[in-house]
ABC transporter ATP-binding protein (Hyphomonas johnsonii MHS-2), 254 residues
Amino acid sequence: MSAEPIIRIRDLKTAYGSHVVHEHLDLDIRRGEIIGIIGPSGCGKSVLLRAIVGLKQPAAGSIEVFGERLEKLDPDERRTLERRWGVMFQDGALFSNLTVRENVMVPMKEHTSLGPQLRTELADMKIRLAGLEPDAGLKYPSDLSGGMRKRAALARALALDPELLFLDEPTAGLDPITAAGFDTLVRQLQKSLGLTVFLVTHDVDTLYATCDRIAVLGEKHVLAVGTIDELRKVDHPWVQEYFGGPRGRAATGH
Ligand SMILES: Nc1ncnc2c1ncn2[C@@H]1O[C@H](COP(=O)(O)OP(=O)(O)OP(=O)(O)O)[C@@H](O)[C@H]1O
């Protein structure tokens, strides 16, 4: 892992009108790590993700990704930078009128000059990489189970061979076995592709199974960041409850 963070957030403030979501938020994401982002509902996990990828304009502070500040780039430079990450949104956000293969090809069409034949071959490769059977590519999202839809959304997030992957609650709504399969897949992909993963989750099992470090959001900023063992020692009621409460104990078998 290099010392230079892949994402560097300093003194971030975000707001919707008078409603301040983040204030004085600092966070570094290290290259090659899977960092879990947790915190109470509505604390701003998804908004933080959106701010990093440029979908939510910060009210103050700075966000650097790959050493660049998005708002300082011209449109071409920004598109080049955006190609280096993939995002899987909370609901998967697949286009319902496109097949899985066509969904995966959307970013390729937008960002590359690859011809249809190559796009198809690459899309099918991503579909397999995400753990789906090849024939899933010809199906529409409505023909897939929840777990398969998540994998299809993951395949699309991987379409451009990203270095950085953003996953917003990837296991929400999945049964525990399917969720565990997804966790394993994320870990395998991180290892084999050398990805850095920014993973928003409520799922304690996912944290234990996949994350190198965890950042706890609350009170508009990062309350604590560290390994699970480090966070267990943090003297904050929500953090204590999260890791020491019944769900946290069940996940560790303590
Ligand atoms: N488009 C929007 N317009 C106005 N307020 C918004 C918008 N998006 C998010 N918010 C507000 O920002 C705050 C943080 O929302 P966010 O979705 O990031 O929370 P979260 O931590 O991801 O929650 P959850 O765990 O429930 O998904 C909430 O108070 C929410 O109401």
Q: What stands out?
A: The pocket of adenosine-5'-triphosphate is lined by residues 16, 21, 39, 41-47 (CB under 6 Å). The chain has a mean pLDDT of 90. The longest strand covers residues 19-29.
